[in-house]
Amino acid sequence: PVYNVIPFPLESPNHGPRQRVSGEEDANASPFGWHDIDGAAGSEFAVTKGNNVYATEDTVNSNSGNGFSPNGGDSMVFDFPMDSTWMNPNSYVAASVTNLFYWNNIVHDVFYNYGFNETSGNFQKNNYAKGGTANDHVMADAQDGSGTTNANFSTPNDGQSGRMQMYLWPTTTVTAPKMALTGSLTADGSYTAPLSNFGTKRFADITAKVVWVHDGSAADTLGCNTLINGAELAGNIALIYRGTCNNTQKVLNAQNAGAIAVIVVNTTTTATSMSGSNANITIPSVIVSSTDGAKIRAAMRNGDTLMATLKGLPNVKAYDSDFDNGVIVHEFGHGISNRLTGGPSNSNCLSNAEQGGEGWSDFFALALTAKASDSANTPRGMGTFVFNQAVSALGIRDFKYSRNMSVNPMTYNYLKNNTEVHYTGTVWCAMLWDMYWNLVDKYGFDADIYHGTGGNNKAIQLVIDGLKLQPCNPGFVDARNAILKADSINNGGANKEAIWKAFARRGLGYSASQGLASSATDGVAKFDLPPGITGVDEAANLASYIQLSPNPTNGIAVLVLPDQLTKAQLTICDITGKIVLDQMAYTDMNQHIIIDMSVYQNGLYFVKLTNGGTTFQSKLLLNK
Known about the structure:
By secondary structure, the protein is of the alpha/beta class.
């Protein structure tokens, strides 16, 4: 097969162009290719479906697996157009699904070689008699209609498919659809008309005549039977009363009769979005209250010809997360960490407060999109593409990832600042990313992500095996110890120094106390190394980790300090050398010292911070 995708290891369209690739299947992880399920030579599917993943669009949020799946034809060429302006996502959905299929398979094959295989609970339709429980390939939903500006992965126990939902990220707020009526003095106006949870959610504005349905029964306006006035309904908007049968049946009957949309009149004075699921419904439908329905009915009985306009979701620019490969890897990573922690039959072992679920996923995304030209101090943002940012921008996390603590100063103490899961995960990933680079420094970087022997490969292996060894609902110390144990088992402890130094510099040192894993705020950070391991005293280099921003400032400037410093002597001089401020300054709970420059005149100032042997000096420009 040939796939036109943003290829491994590129992170997004901003990191490199789409390319036609082939032969990417790993023989060990996918011995019969990506479109197989029977374990015999030859593909069973010419669409984006196979043993590891079934990728479809799910714009209607049916979760049925019956959405559109692009067909590569007899030649198995999945090459479809992509609109680089990111307008009208429906126009490039085939390309979206293809990229999603390709990257799910890449992630499957990569991590298979690190031990996320059949017996460890990986996601496969057919386990090829290698153990574990089969019938659980990933259901990957492109342009999922259940939301925007997000993505997720649900992980049931081994034997049940994981579901990945990838959303669009609009650049403007998407408003709810509205309905307007014209043609009647009594019924003209705008109506509250929520869109149903089934059928299409993205459509151009629809304007057509409103027509009652008739199904030939005693209550023929309920539309529960095959409609008999198809000639009148064709190309128009059907009006149906709620009751007796399911809403999905009513709308499907109207669609089959030729209606292009449906208005359902509720039985109550409220208009609440209709639920249900039927993948065969492709037209939009809305519901109005019984009060509004009575107004519409009265106008039609009066002989008024009502024209309705259903306002579709605006055709706004939206960045498609199906092309943000870092986000795809991140979401798949939840399936890995949930299946490996506690074992494949207990995927609920990462539900405690102090767990690094989001951090493991970020780590996997970083590791699979790393390049040989990167260094430990290369700043890496997450999700810059979906945020419509440059590749050098921050992305969706509070800090970029880098071993340079002036770029990412996060330590174990930062958990006290914010217990939101992504923030907690960012702290954990910062530690893992330091460890990754310590090992790359020691063994080098190997571009063979599948079978290489570089420090990057060793770091991934330790993280995967640490997941297997850690207890259910682990805290950070538990997770750190599991990685150390994995190194002891795999390598005879050959890398314990590199591992300890990574964790210790960010507060998860030898004397660190976890407290309760059910709490993210009761841990005690320590920066020491265990007996027998010596290294650079991080406290001696703290000055390089202190940040002063914004600079220039219009009044307030912030000094960000490492956790080891709680106070320091702050001295500020003007350009003539005159001291304008000289006092002991104390950090707040975020390790910040706030400097109020609003009382001084515009100009250049010199800031000096002193604590024992640590000195920080910087110029600060005030421009109010």
